[in-house]
Amino acid sequence: MDKVLHPASSRGTANYGWLKANYSFSFANYFDPGKVQFGLLRVLNDDFVQGGMGFGTHPHENMEIISIPLKGEIRHKDSMDNTKVIKAGEVQVMSAGTGVEHSEFNPSKEELNMLQIWIFPEKNGLQPRYGQKDYSSLLKKNELINIVTPKNDEAENALWINQNAYLHLGEFESGRKIEYELKDKSHGVYVFLIEGEAEIDNSVLRKRDAIGIKATESFSIMFKNQSKVLLIEVPMN
């Protein structure tokens, strides 16, 4: 097993007043040549957006974008005529493809905390598309739930993207241990601990710590405290 540990304290940060951002990989004005991407995972941003504020209309292309609100809600509007609200417990996917413009705002007075993930697509120039699903009733204690799969390998209840990638979310009680088996042994998995404390191969993760794992077919996670975890399995090249 090869692994790289990314403590929460090593992330890039930015404070724009209305937005406090944490960058797991090089983004905007933050650049670290050792943290540009993990395989085909390009971005994992942990954003805190003040009430009534947000990102104005801006373009994307040739990227698979997954948004996961952890607290609060996002009002999304795009050039595909989608106007949606995505709340905590829901997941949004957007294939930017040949090009799409969108805006994201926090319509509430309360602070929004969201994860935004970018994954390179299997090929450029694809048709833009949008998907959204509420997972709040599907999440069960001490189980991983598959929230995103590749287009041609759709799991029940999962959203899909144009890449051979799999995203799982789970909430676990203290003392629970799980085994994760990779869908493809050539892939890697980026484990992001949203809350709690966990141990993987003698590496301890605490809130917002992450570890990239590759060159293995499976690994175990021991949860030392009540925890919430996100697993992102992606091709490494």
From TrEMBL:
Source organism (scientific name): Christiangramia fulva
Binding site for Fe cation: 58, 60, 102, 104
Keywords: Iron, Metal-binding
Keyword Electron transport: no
Name of one Pfam family that matches: Pirin
Named cofactor requirement(s): Fe cation
Ranges for domain Pirin N-terminal: 13-119
Record note on cofactor: Binds 1 Fe cation per subunit.
Domain Quercetin 2,3-dioxygenase C-terminal cupin: 152-234
GO molecular function: metal ion binding
Family note: Belongs to the pirin family.
Protein name in the entry: Pirin family protein
